[in-house]
Design brief:
The chain has about 230 residues and is an alpha/beta fold. The chain has eight helices and six strands, in the order ααβαβααββαβαβα. Helix 7 links the parallel strand 5 and strand 6.
Length: about 230
């Protein structure tokens, strides 16, 4: 039984009972038993646990989790302190530096964003080690589509940051005119120069939030020593 300890429990209660999710659950039990799967099974729903429905004001949609050791922990694009910053996340930080003059941090731990109402949601929430896209088309897409559909119904305005083709596919579920959809290429080194760099999504998101009477996001990620972690971790 999935327990998120916030308002998502009631909002997603029926979804966890649906046939497709029960089949996904059987698949995951087998995968975690016989293969190395990321993130840890207790971290699959970190994004929903840290960012409640009521608090969500920005949504960043990733693809599937990092497939290398010690990287994925349930938040799109984020890695734990002490783990090298992946190239796509480094490009996100470079765009933040250009857009809002944020200092590039020495870590990729995005929990401070999640705690401010930034839902860091991957389209697919699990992956086999060293096999990107290995858990696609197993049911996760239907689940995260439902999360987006629920957010679409929210009266309070939300900014959706959709980077790359996979994320852009979620736009079809966002029909509420109160929300803002910003799209760009994926921040991957293969595509960042073709529309991600210079998109200024972070300042545009904050401007939208402020116009709608919401607190802007503090996008600056604290340096690792300010988080109380040691580099050796």
């Amino acid at each position: 039984m999935v327990i998120l300890n916030n308002d998502w429990d009631q909002l997603l209660e029926d979804e966890f009972q649906k046939d497709y999710y029960q089949k996904l659950r059987v698949f995951l039990i087998h995968e975690y038993r016989y293969y190395t799967v990321y993130p840890d099974m207790y971290e699959i729903f970190t994004a929903l646990k840290l960012t409640s429905y009521a608090e969500t004001k920005v949504v960043i949609i990733g693809q599937d989790p990092y497939h290398g050791p010690n990287q994925a922990h349930g938040l799109a694009f984020s890695v734990k302190p002490g783990v090298a910053i992946p190239p796509s996340l480094l490009n996100i930080f470079k765009e933040l530096q250009s857009d809002l003059n944020c200092e590039i941090p020495d870590n990729g731990y995005l929990v401070p964003w999640a705690k401010q109402g930034v839902l860091l949601l991957n389209a697919v929430l699990t992956v086999r080690a060293n096999q990107p896209k290995s858990h696609r088309n197993r049911g996760w897409e239907q689940f995260t589509d439902r999360v987006i559909a629920i957010l679409n119904e929210k009266n309070a305005p939300i900014v959706f940051l959709l980077w790359g083709n996979d994320a852009k596919q979620k736009a079809q579920a966002i029909t509420n005119p109160k929300h803002l959809i910003l799209t760009a290429t994926h921040p991957s080194p293969f595509s960042a120069a073709y529309g991600f760099f210079g998109c200024r999504h972070f300042s545009r998101a904050n401007q939208f939030l402020e116009v709608n009477g919401l607190e802007p996001v503090e996008w600056q990620i604290p340096m690792i020593h300010r988080l109380g972690f040691e580099r050796s971790q």
